Amino acid sequence: MNSESTLSAIVLAAGLGTRMKSRKAKVLHEAGGQALLEHVLDAAEATVSPERIVVVIGHQAEEVRKRVGGRGCRFVTQTEQRGTGHAVAICAGEAAKDGRTLLLYGDCPLLTADTIARLVAAQAKSGCAATLITTLLDDPTGYGRIVRSADGAVAAIVEHKAATPEQLQIREINSGIYCIDSALLWKFVGEIVPNAASGEIYLTDIVELLGAVGHRVEALVLEDPSEILGINHRVELAEADRILRARKARQLMFDGVTILQPETVSIDARVRIGQDTVIGPLTQISGSTVIGEDCRVGAGSVIRDSVIADGVEIGEYCFIGTSTVASGARIGPFSRLRQDNQVGAGAHIGNFVELKKTVFGAGSKAMHLAYLGDSVIGAGVNVGAGTITCNYDGTHKHTTTIEDGVFVGSNSTLVAPVKLEQGSYIAAGSVITDAVPSGALGLGRSRQSNKEGWADKKRAESKAGKS
Ligand code: UD1
Ligand code: CA
Q1: Its pTM surpasses 0.85
Q2: Active site residue 368
Q3: Which residues contact residue 321 at a Cβ distance below 8 angstroms, ignoring those fewer than 6 apart?
Q4: pLDDT tens digits, one per residue of 77-112
Q5: Sequence ranges of the domains in the chain
């Protein structure tokens, strides 16, 4: 058996997080575009297979399950939050008893997979009972302090509230992240007695229990304390969000994406962006968005849950939601691809054009001021400025079909359901209510008539005071 297969994890995520002042469980709050718990599970799953991860849930257990249940991890419900030691102890029936166990907190979203791997490696190498992550803080207020023995081992963790004045001077703090020999964990976790002052069962007390029977506990000291920032209130949530987004931008830049003024962009953790794409300032790219290579995303554009192929140019201030854009297309500036659109290769969508549930064919163009909703538009179509699909009759939505090569003159009103057949031509200013056959001209307005001399006569009359 390799070491990965004998590694398990328990993630504590039952607390409400009183200081969040929220009806929502703390671990469901988002930073960097996903729930805090999702970040922790992402990091854990890099070294532990999901079926060996147990998540302790309590507050909003059903919502938490719904959010992360698809990953294949196990759940244990802690109905009453009786402390971190209690939360681990109740996993006895569900967790694996072999190998080593990682103990993680669901509210520490900045911990990286690399650091988890380092912790596991350090623990394996030392052969000691447990290794925990610590760091030195200028202001250790609120954290458990690390008490070292003469030989450098971790002798005890003293909670802030219980610390003596000398112990309060200790700057090395407990992150709450441990890698422990599973057999020893399950032997001793049940022996922790409730804290005399608070009545809670503190997981940290296991260090002294191990020490008392000669087992050694060591620490992996992190140089960068930001990784173990636990989120307790919304100011820390904002700080975690900032750090996660900065990390994401940095990673993308190392991977070959140019980001202009990276401190102004906001890119979610799951977003993928290809090589040599240039991302402009003040952009927001979120959810499951995937952007290809050699694209440009203009300043101020917002892209959500969309797939953008290679070589796409998105101008300034566009909005793209749940849509796909094929290679070489040009969008914007100031376009809105509201939802569920498919823009074909090389198509152009210009300023103040809104698309909703529309298939827009390869090489087609709608350059200015149009609303195209519930439409199926073929290839090589030209949609003139001011074209509106009337897709809604007050009760139902209807489809507008525009076949290949159609020319829609400016300011046309297309009353759906309606079909413009291949190669037809719509006169500007038409109101089209019936199908236009292939190759035909659809003219849906009264013809112009000119009254010769009318204007001259009118002016002459005005001058003569006849008005
Ligand atoms: C804990 C540690 C402290 C460490 C700090 C680091 C203990 C006793 N103390 O303190 O040494 O410096 O973390 O951030 O462990 N939880 C449950 N069920 C419970 C209690 C807690 O699931 O019954 C979960 C919480 O939802 C949270 C995590 O465990 O995700 C940590 O609990 P919290 O109460 O925040 O511990 P701290 O007081 O911060
Ligand atoms: Ca905490």
Answers
A1: yes
A2: yes
A3: 303, 304, 305, 306, 337, 338, 339
A4: 999 999 999 999 999 999 999 999 999 999 999 999
A5: 7-228, 243-442
